[in-house]
């Protein structure tokens, strides 16, 4: 048993769990930290779409969109299925994605407002 700051016993299993959880969140933020993937999630939030529809909407090559879809799928944020010859993607948990998109937009607005007020203060 180790002592944290020399005062209280430290539970290493809790530390390990916290580090694991932080790593999971960091990995998810890495996936969400790409503008193209956020745009894909926003578009899929309106319903499932074929890859060709996403490429047209985003103005990107099919291979680029497919790479981003694979990353989103690997993170468990979306799922895909075949419909004839088309590959169709949809958000796996729409409520959670709505919360994420809302939180990122709110954070961006707060940061933007804060930066604007700091700019006014320096005048």
UniProtKB/TrEMBL annotation:
Gene Ontology MF, one: DNA-binding transcription factor activity
Signal peptide: none
Keywords associated with the record: DNA-binding, Transcription, Transcription regulation
PROSITE patterns xrefs: HTH_ARSR_2
Ranges for domain HTH arsR-type: 17-111
PANTHER family: ARSENICAL RESISTANCE OPERON REPRESSOR, TRANSCRIPTIONAL REGULATOR, ARSR FAMILY
Name of the protein this chain belongs to: Transcriptional regulator
Naturally occurring in which organism (per UniProt): Actinomyces oris
């Amino acid at each position: 048993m180790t002592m944290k700051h020399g005062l209280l016993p430290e539970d290493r299993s809790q530390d390990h769990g916290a580090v694991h959880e932080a790593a999971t969140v960091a990995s998810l933020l890495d996936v969400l930290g790409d503008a193209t993937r956020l745009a894909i999630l926003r578009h899929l939030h309106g319903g499932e779409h074929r890859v060709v529809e996403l490429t047209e909407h985003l103005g990107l090559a099919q291979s680029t969109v497919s790479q981003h879809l694979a990353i989103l799928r690997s993170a468990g944020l979306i799922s895909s299925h075949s419909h004839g010859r088309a590959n169709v993607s949809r958000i796996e948990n729409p409520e959670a994605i709505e919360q994420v998109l809302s939180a990122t937009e709110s954070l961006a607005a707060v940061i933007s407002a804060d930066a604007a007020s700091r700019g006014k203060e320096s005048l």
